[in-house]
Amino acid sequence: MRIRFYFLLLGLLGSSVLCAQNKELLYDFYEIPQSLMVNPGVKTSEKWHVGIPVISGLSFQGATSGVTVNDLFANDGIDFTTKVQERVLDAMTRKDDFSTTGQIEGITVGFRGRNRPDDYYSFGMYGETDVIVYWPRDLAFLAFEGNGGANIGRSFDLGDLKLRGEMINVFHFGINRKMSESLTVGARAKLYSSIFQFQSIKNSGNFTTTEGQDNIYVTSINANMQLQTAGVRGFYDILEEDTGTTKKDIKSLFVDRVLLGGNLGLGFDAGFSYQLTPQTTITGSILDLGFIYNNKDVWNYTLNGSTSTEGISVYLPEDIDNVDNDLWQELIDDIDAALPHGETQESYISFRPVKAYGSIRYDFGEGGNSPFNNCGCGVNDQGGGSNRDYYRNSVGGQLFMMKRPRGVQAALTGFYQKRFGKTLALKTTYTVDKYSFTNVGLGLNLQAGPVNFYILGDNLLSYSNIADSHYASLQFGFNIISWNDN
Amino acid sequence: MKRSFYLLLCISALLLLSQSCTEPQDFSQFDDLSITPTLATGLFYMESDEVTINDAGSLSTFYSQTVNFDAFNEQYVAEHLIEGTITYEILNTTSKQLRITIEFLDEAENTLDAELFNIDPDPSGINIWEVAYGPGGKSLDILANTSSLRITATNLGDATSVSTQSEPKIKFKSAAEFLFRLK
């Protein structure tokens, strides 16, 4: 129990220490090549870029809209059960969630077309883990308080159980094209190689105990529940066997899944940047419009049906000759039959969490020389007042939306960006979303010759006590960038 | 000067990003978590019309049955039960005094405990008995060792009288409400 709890804690709450899917700092931070991954239509200036393998793009994000680690585990002398009651059970709603996302970029390469310098191609591979668990409010009340006492008559909503998670490897190829001086568009095709996926997102039903028609209480359950898993059983079986080759077998299976040996899917990103005026730009993108077809290593667990019981019931004279003394077992069997549960191996399609960004940016503060004045590409950097790189300051707003099992999550961001020559650019953001109203982020991009380093951190105000943070995010990486033939 | 400014900014930003700290956390508090839900369920219901009682005769048993009942002695239940109450509710609208006995039997069918209810003829209203188990009540071992229940219903009156009620019946209801310690 304890180990399971710590595992849950590590997975759900602990991840918030490091780290949601919104990359408001990276979005439209065009000095960083990885900004192509959140808007394929971002304006690009470089001639080519290569990410340093594995460390070109690391991002960890985590969020809890309800209780924090500190709320529960602060050394404050308050009884732990009281804290759970007041800060979790009484405070959290079914819309609260724990979520975490991590991305590790394995390879990323970008280059400008030799014959079509208006085109910037990029491709690569990255791994992504994304888990969201909604607080199963009624089920938690059922576990902590039971169906008796004050809960007689209460309907516990089984639909409160909603969770989704996956680990995937993504192979991608994108094209960014400058259509005109004011419009840049881009698109990216993605091939998903699933390592594992699980979801329990279409549950419904209820569990109630009320005054019975005959007996004192009648307990009723109406359940339509399903947990779908793909790729999980394979790992579970290896761990269960616990042979001397467990580590090797896990590694082998993992590598196989990473390299297209598991369930596969397709996805699509698209985006644009449009310069309304020389100083005003709007952008937009939609990411991970895709799916994975899960037909390998699929194990689904189902519970469907409805029944009610008032206990063992005897009606005389109808049952006078019934000398069966297994009435209890018959009752159990009847309930079991009315609530069919079992495992299936039916294939299913899981949709990726679609994300969308939009922004408006106003550039100001002429800086004289463009920070990319050594660019040899001649694209998006033609000097003069029409070039956005000519301006040293940017201010604007961004909107982020993401499809989640309980609907669309949105975040609104205001940002200010300052460029200090061609070596340093800073971006600061203020974001409002369901997790935090005090999310101030800071991003830094450092260009030392061809070496590019960036680090982006969110919700910095919470860093004074990160255990009390509802949201945290950290991204960093190294790239080699060239704007000329060097 | 300009370079120093950039450097200062750079270092400041890096420091800001790296200066995360946290108040001390005590994860051992989890050991103190107490989860004690109250679970409620209907147990046994029996009803009989007056004709059946009369047919059995005067001063005779009109229903006797031993039923396997393993709900309490399931290992998990037996180990996690803290306390509880079994509520019996009896409504007698027949014209005769009745007695209902419920015996708690172990696997060898030895009687561990018994509850005996004498119910007056109509109008006797709704009779409610609450039997507590656990601290201050009967031993939880009775429930933990109960493997079956023997229910006996006896007519203590005559075999001819008929109640003036439209559908005279004896209704025996029972339910359990128990406190469990899950953690």
Describe it.
- The complex is a heterodimer of chains A (486) and B (183).
- Chain A has seven helices and 23 strands.
- By secondary structure, chain A is of the alpha+beta class.
- Chain A has one domain.
- In chain A, strand 20 (424-432) and strand 21 (439-448) form a beta hairpin.
- In chain A, helix 5 runs antiparallel to helix 6.
- The longest helix of chain A has 17 residues, at 2-18.
- Chain A is elongated and about 95 Å long.
- The termini of chain A are far apart.
- Mean pLDDT of chain A is 87; it is low at 1-20, 371-378 and 381-388.
- Chain B has one domain: Jelly Rolls, CATH 2.60.120.
- Chain B is 19% helix and 42% strand.
- Chain B contains four helices and eight strands; from the N terminus they run H-E-H-E-H-E-E-E-E-H-E-E.
- In chain B, strand 4 and strand 5 (111-119) form a beta hairpin.
- Chains A and B meet through helix 1, helix 2, helix 3, helix 4 and strand 9 of A and helix 1, strand 1, helix 2, strand 2 and strand 8 of B.
- Strand 14 (312-316) of chain A pairs parallel with strand 1 of chain B.
Summarize the structure.
The complex is a heterodimer of chains A (486) and B (183). By secondary structure, chain A is an alpha+beta fold.
The greatest interface here is: A-B, 68 and 63 residues
Count of helical regions of chain B: 4
Mean pLDDT over all positions of chain A? 87
Task: Specify the overall morphology of chain B.
Answer: elongated
Please write the CATH class name of chain B: Mainly Beta
Largest sheet of chain B: 4 strands, antiparallel
Assign a percent range to the helix content of chain B. Answer: 10-25%
User: How many β strands of chain B by DSSP?
Assistant: 8
What is the quaternary state of this protein?
heterodimer
Number of helices of chain A: 7
Integer average pLDDT of chain B: 86
Residue stretches of chain B low in confidence (pLDDT < 50, at least 5 long) are none
CATH topology of chain B: the name is Jelly Rolls
What string, H for helix and E for strand, traces the elements of chain B in order?
A: HEHEHEEEEHEE
Main β sheet profile of chain A: 22 strands, antiparallel
